[in-house]
Amino acid sequence: MRTHFTSEAEPFEAYTDFELEFEINRSSRDYMKWVQSSLNRIIGARLVVDGISGSKTRAAVQTFQRQKGLTADGIVGQITEGALIAAGAGQPPGGAGGAPSSGTPGTGSPSSAIATFLPYSGTGYESKYTSSDLRFNQYGRSEAILALLWIAREWQRKHPNGPKLYIGPISKKGGGTLCYSDGMCHAEHKDGLDIDIRPVRNDQSKGGLKFTDSSYSRQLTQELVDLAWSNRCVPVEKILFNDPAVNRVDYSSGHDDHLHVSFKAPSGSLPAECRSTGSGYGWELSEELEQEWEEFLDDFWGSFTQPRIEDRTAFTPKDKRKGVRDIKKVYALVLHQMAFSRGNEPKKYDTVTAHFAILPDGKITQLHPETALLWASNGFNAGSVAVEFAGNFPNTKGKCWEAKKFGCHKVTPEQIEAGRYLVEYLIKKIGLTHILAHRQSSGSRENDPGPDIWYNVGQWTVEKHGLKDGGPGFKVGSGNPIPDAWRAWGSMKKDPEIAWEISDEFDEGEFYDGEFAAEEEFSLSSLPASVIRALRNGMESVALKLAIANGHRDENDLTNMIFFRRHQERGERKLSKGEPNFDRLASEWTDIRDRLVRPALRGLGTTSSAPSKPASTGGAKPVETYCTAVNPKGKNEDLLMKQLAPFVQKYRGDIPIDFLLGWIAVESAGYIEATTRQCERGYFQLHPEEARRVGVDDPQRLSTDPEYSVRMGIEMVKGKMARAEQLGFARGTDLNRHFAKLLHWLPAYVPILVNLWKASGASPRTWKGFSDFVVKNRDEIVKAMAKQYPKNNLLAILKTKPGKSNADPVHGIMGVDKVFVRGPIWEERLRKMGALSGTNEMEMFQEADFALF
To answer: Are strands 434-437 and 332-337 parallel, antiparallel or unpaired?
Structure first.
C-alpha cells in the first residue's frame, strides 16, 4: 500500500543560496563574555570572563572547535556560534529572537553537524551539479553522506559497468531551507538528512528523466530503492517517488523525476552494522570487499569527522614543561602505562606527565605540545614524545603492580587502535623513526608499558612501518631491554588485532588434476608488507587476497608466492624436471594454483595470465567449484514464507517443522535465489557435493524451483540426521537435530568434536553441555582439527576472535543456535497467517535432552 504525501514539489533543479546572518556584533565585549562563560560551562575552560579575546580564550575556542569537528582557527564565527548554542550555551547577546537580515523565509538555526561536503564524484556516483557555484547544496550530516557512499559503492559492486547514480540536492552548509531562484523554497532538505537521486536509466546517458520516459529502468530503480532501505549506516525514514509499480516508495506531488530519500536522525555513534559487510542472512561478502570497506571507512572518517586527538594543552600544568625542543630532533615515541585508571573523562588526566594520554575508551588527549621537554622517559627525554595508556596492566605472569590499591586492567581494543592511530599520526607529523618502551630507559619500570601494549602497538609498528626499537639487548642507563616474550606475545596468546577470515575449503572434496604450468620469475621481496605478514602467520588465503588487492593478478606469480613460502629451503629456485621429488612438488604447485589461486582470482572476475587445461573430471558432470554470490534483499518476508510453507509441510515427514523453518531462516532467509561463492544454493543452501549426494540433477533448479528446492533440501537434512545417528545421537531427539545442523557446517570436523567431548567425560550430555565444552576448549579442539587436516591452515583460527572464522567450531555452534531461535518465530508467524495447519510438533517432543553414547 502506497502512502500519499502532500508537500511542496521538489524539482531536480539548482537553488539559490541565502546565508543566515543575525544582527550580532561578534567583536563586542558582551559577545566575548558570552563566549568565555559558555566555554567555562561546556568544556571547563576556567577562563576569566572579561570580554577580552586573549591567547587563553583563543586556545579554549580551538579546543571546543576540535571537539566538534570544526576548523580549529580560534575564531568564533557563525558555525562555531551555532555549535556553542547547540551545546547549551543559550542565545548570544543581540541574537535572541533576531530575524534574518536577508529577509529569507524562516530557515531555522544553522547546525555545525551539517558540514560534510559530498565530493563531485566517487565510486558508483556523480553529482548532477558540475558547476562549483551550484554545489552549495551538496552538504549533509556525515552519517547521511556515509550512507549515500555506502549505497553507491554497493551499487558499483553490483553494476561495475554502470550506470552510475546521479545525486541532486542534499542541504546547504549549516542547514536551513533551500530556495529556488524564483524565491520558492523547499519544504525539506533542511537538516542534512534528505538526498535526491535520479531514477536509473536503461542506458549510459547522464540526462534527467521521468518514470514515464522510455529510457527509464523500473527494474534498476527498484534495486536502488531496495539497496537504500538495506544500508547499514543510517535507517531510512521514507522514500518519495511516483512510479506506482515500484515497491517501498510513497507518492508525493512533484516526484516523477527523482527519488527523495530521507534518513532518520542519527542517535549516538555510527552503528556497528555500518562497519560490517555481512548480509545478516547466513552468508558473508568477500574478504576483499570487507578490507576495501574498512579502508574506505578509515579514509572517510579521517576526512570528515572530528579529529581523534583532543587538545588539552591550554589546561595542563605549564610547570611540567622544562624547556622547548627543536621538533626536528624528536625521533622517537616512548610507550608507557600509567599503572592507574581514572575512567574516560579527559580532564582527570591533565596532571599526567606525558605528551599524550590514551583513555580506556580510546580517546586520545594531547596534554603538552610535542616541542615541550618533559621529564617523562628518563634517558629518552630529549628526543622523544611520551604516550601514557590509562590502566594498570599485567606482566607476562599476569601480575599487576599493587593490584589491591590500583586495580588490574586489560588493555582495551579501543586503546590498541588509538595507539596505532597515534603512531601513524606522529609518523606523518614529525617523521618518527623509533618506537621505544619506557623500561628501556628506567631500571624501576620493568613492566612499562607491558607485553600487551608493546606487542599490539610497539611490535606492530616495527613490523608494519619499519620503525626501530634499538634491537635485542638495547637499553640506556639503568634500563632493561625489551624481553623476547614481549616481541612474540601475540604468538603466545590470542592477538586481539588479527581477525582474519580463512576461506571455506570443503573438507570432503578432492584435489583437481591439472597440468603443471611453467613458473615465471618471482620474488617474495616484491610483495607488500601486509602480504608477507599474512604468509608468515600461515594465512595463505588471506595473503592471496591481499596480494590481489594490491594489484598482483598473475596466477603463476601468486602460486609461486604460496609455494616458495612453504618451501623456503629452495631460496625461490624454480622447479626442474630432473630434480628429486619433482612429481610430488609439481603436484603440490598445481594443487595450490587450482584450489587456492584460481578461485581467488575468479572472485574478482580476473582471468589468469596463462590459462591451462581444465581440471579432469572423467565422464561425470563436473561439480561446481565457484559461483558469483547472490545476496538478495528487500522482498516481503511474509510472502516468501508463505510460498515455501506448503512444500515444507508436504515433504517434511516426521521432522519438526520449526526445525526446517529455522534452517531456512538461517541459511537463506527464505530467498530461493541466494547463492554463495562456494555454490551453496537454494532455501537450504546445499553445497555442490551435498547436492550430488542427494541426487540433484540440475543445481540451478535449487535456485529457481521452490518445490524442488524444498524437497531436495529436506533430503539433505535427512542425510545429516542419519549421520548424526551414526555419531550416537538417536533419531528424533533434540541432540540429533542439533548435530544434524552442525554437520552442515563443516562435516569432516564434527566427529573430532564429538570424540573429544566423549573422551572428556564432561556432563551434562546436552547441547548446552556440548556448547560449553567447545567454547571452553576451543584452542585444543582447533589444534586437534589441524593435526588431522594439516593442509587446511586451521591454526590461523587461533589468531581470530572466537566465532569469527567460518572454520571456528564456535562459529558452527553459533549457527546451530540461531536455527532453534528463528524456527519457532517463523512457525508462529505462519500459523497466524493461516499458512500452516496441524499441531506444533515440537510441543509433542518431551524426550530427554541427551543421547546414548
So the answer is: parallel
